[in-house]
Every structure is written in structure tokens, then in C-alpha cells.
Amino acid sequence: MQRREFLADCGMGFTGLAMGSMLAADGIVRGAQLPTGEPHFTPRAKSIVWVFLSGGYSQIETFDPKPALNRYAGKTYAQTPFPNPIESPLHRERFRSVPAEELNIRDVYPSIFPMQVGYAPHGQSGIEVTDWWPHLAGHVDDLCFVRNMWTTDNDHAAENQIHTGRHRLDETQPSIGAWAHYGLGSINENLPRFVVLGGPTRTDTSQSIESYYLGPAHAGVPLKLDPANPLSFGVRQSGQSARQQANEFALVARLNQLTTRTRPQDARLAARIKSYELAYRMQSAVPEAVALNQETAGTQRLYGIDEGPTKLAGERLLAARRMVERGVRFVQVFPSPYGTWDSHQKLKENHARMCKSVDKPIAGFVADLKQRGLLDDVAIVFCTEFGRTPGREERGSNTTGRDHHPHGFTVWLAGAGLKKGCVHGATDELGYHALGAGHYVTDLHATVLHLLGLDNTRLEVPGRKRLDIDRGQVITDILS
Question: Which of 120-134, 137-151, 454-468 is least confident?
């Protein structure tokens, strides 16, 4: 094997990153069952911004207030007039514990913990949101809340599950962003189709942007908000001028063209040539896309970039707007660090601080997209990996927080193809179980792909059989 072939096959650097995409675009690896790069039907959205809050925010203290928790605070579930949620068949049907069941008590704390914040109805729709989201509450008439989500992993591997649809004990699947990349062609050939801002920051959560058997070309591309070095291995070597690099790429292109004369049918070589061209174009396009200093002071204030607590989330969400504005298909945003919403204790203190850090930036993001007309083409997903228990956590000395809760939680969506000012689904009076059939996390995936014009059941890979739960079902009630 020649050195050049070895480097390409290893999938390292720009060459490997772009190779699969170029092969697919040329129809070289595309079979009858593989995507053509065109949507299956008329799309409702051109791009998706998937905002993920790591650690598990409380549905009760954010977007699904439960006043019954205040009325029955300190009592057990059995002492309320409501059915005991622990005795519900849903508890076993939807829950899959990794530890032995007799050791796993984290979702059955019997003492009801009251709400740690007030709430009020907002907008013409009268949707109730807690007082920790004053800026976002002003936009509820543009949002669609899904209050009956559920998942099965009660530990932080659920961060991967919300993105891949699979429990950690099962075979890993590609992430939702990778499926979107796999199914559709590019809007902007100078930028990646699947961009990641702010994460993942740990190797054990990298599944949330991986592509696995779809191939490395479809994985998320993490970008840093540093115009001088936004993409690892994507800048010129120290001491090399722009002219020298241009000459180097021109020489490589010339040598490749000479080789094609002796190997005219070499599809890998043809794709490699295009991958070098893409790599060169990205060097100028990516730094420009993350150059937030090009934005006006007013826009930066809208996102809270001028304030310490909101600066981090504001920068990442503003960069997301610049990405979709330039045609990136799927942008995955981590507005806060790993696990920061995981409020096992001091929930009131922690959630008050974390809500403040994201509230103004996400509200500014919605407002900015709307005023620019981008909400007509872009759909937003705002989610976390699971909710928090209605009961007070009582492991050790913890008495001021809530534990992990996969049985029922809330996400919201907004933008292209989605109803405005609506609430879909519900949890029970105590905020424990998602009522009815509820929606497993892959229903959210199916809905996102549907917005992009993709039928999730038709996204198949020869030799790979997916389960029905991997595909999910479109949440049709929230479509406009």
C-alpha cells in the first residue's frame, strides 16, 4: 500500500474526513438502498439546531410545574390521593437498570420534595414556565413543549442514549446528527454538514456525535470558537505562508491529476482530489463562520455575551446561528459543561444559577432567528438526557436535591414545520410518569429527520438491521 492510500484509509485529518462524503457525492459508494443526498419528500426545515443541556435538568423546576408537590410536600406517594407511581406497570415497562434491582433505589424515594421555584402562565397560549426562565418565557408562543418524553437509562449514559437511541447495554447506534448527515447532501460545500459546538468533553460521551457503521465521514466535527484555530489540524503549519500553502496544494493537485491519466477509473483517487480541495476551502470558511466579533454589539448583548454568567452559552448559540445562516445542516450545541445540571443536592441554588446561564442566550437565539426569518428554515430542539425525581433524594446526607429520573421529562422544539405555542403530552400529577404511550427518545429523532424531509425507516445500511425502537415514530401532533 502506498503512503497516500494508507493515510486516506486511516481516516485521519481532512483527507479522511472528507473522503467518504466525496465518494458518496460522486455516487461511488452509493447503492440502490443508500441515500442519494436528496430528501425523500418536501422538507419542512433546511437545518436543525440541537441544544443539549448535560446532567439532566428538572422537568418540575423548568417546563412542567407540578403544584401538587407543594400541597403534599413531605408525604409519601401512598399518602396522596393519586395512584402510587411506583406501583404503576409503566415503572417496570420503561425502566432498565444496570445495577441489581435491589441496589437501585434512586428513582423510588418516597418523600415528596416540593417545587423549588414559582411558576406562571405566559403568552397568549398561557403555557406555564417556572420563574427561572424569564427571558425564554417571553417566547412561549413560538415554542412547542413535549412533556411526555421517557428513556430507560437512569445513569449518565443516558446522555448517549438521547442522541443514539440505545441503552448502554445494547449495540451502539449512530447519533441523530450522523443520520441527518448520512441522509442529506450539503447546502454549503465549504463547511461540514454536522458541526458540534462545546462538546462532548469526555471520551465516554463521544457517542453523542459519532457515526459508527455509517462511516467516519458522517460524524460530527467539533469546532472551537477561536478564528485563529477553530479546527484541529485545520490550520497552516507554523512558519508557512498562505502563498506557500497554496503552492503546496496546487502541486498535490497537479500530481494527482497526472496520476489519474494512468488510473482513470480509480474512484478513491478522484474522491481524494476533491477532499484536498474541500480541506483548502474550509480553512477560510470555518474561521469566518466562528468570527463572532463580526456581530454588532447589540446582537452580542441579545445573547448575553457581554455578561459573565451567560457568555459561554451566548457565544455557542450565536455561533450556531452563524452556522445555519451559512447552510450547515445539523448543529449540536452544548451550552453548558458536562453534568452541570445534575442537581443531586442544592437543587435550588444550582438550577437557579444554571437557568440564568442559559435563559437569556437561548431566548436571544430564538429572537434572533425569528427577526432574521431563519425560523422559517431552521428547527430548534432543546433537550436533556432525563428529568429529576419528584421525591427528595435521600442517599447519604442529601436532602436538598432530586436524583435522575428517566420515566418522564420535558423537551421543547421551535421553528420550521412545528406548531407554535403548544403543549403536547403530559406527566402525572406528581411529574413521575409520562402519560399514555409517551415518547421514547427515538420519536424525537424520527421527528427531526421528518422535518428535514427524511423517512427514518428508509435510512438503512446494507447488512445492518435496525429495530423498530431505533427508528421511532414521528410526533405528528406537533407538526404545523
Answer: 454-468
Q: Cis link prior to 99 (omega < 30° from 0)?
A: no
How, if at all, do strands 378-384 and 409-415 pair?
A: antiparallel
Distance between CA 449 and CA 157 in Å, rounded?
23
Nearest CA among 359, 47, 1 for reference residue 184: 47
pTM score, whole prediction = 0.87
- What 3-state DSSP class applies to 470? helix
Q: Summarize pLDDT for 416-475 with one digit per residue, the tens.
A: 999 999 999 999 999 999 999 999 999 999 999 999 999 999 998 888 888 888 999 999
Yes or no: say if 113 and 61 are a contact pair by the CB < 8 Å rule: no
Count of Cβ atoms closer than 10 Å to residue 298 Cβ = 7
Q: Is the dihedral of CA 425, 430, 434, 436 positive or negative?
A: negative
Domains of the chain: 1-30+238-289 (no CATH), 46-225+291-478 (3.40.720)
Q: Which residue has the cell 445540571?
A: 341
How far is 185 from 26, CA to CA, in rounded Å? Answer: 11
Cα separation, 277 vs 18, in Å, equals: 10
The candidate with the shortest Cα–Cα distance to 451, out of 180, 189, 192, is: 180
H helix or E strand, kind and range, residue 14: helix 13-25
Q: pLDDT tens across 68-100, in order? A: 999 999 999 999 999 999 899 888 788 777 665
For 164-221, the DSSP string reads H---TTS-----HHHHHHHHB--S-TTS-SEEEES---SGGGGGGG--GGG-GGGS-E
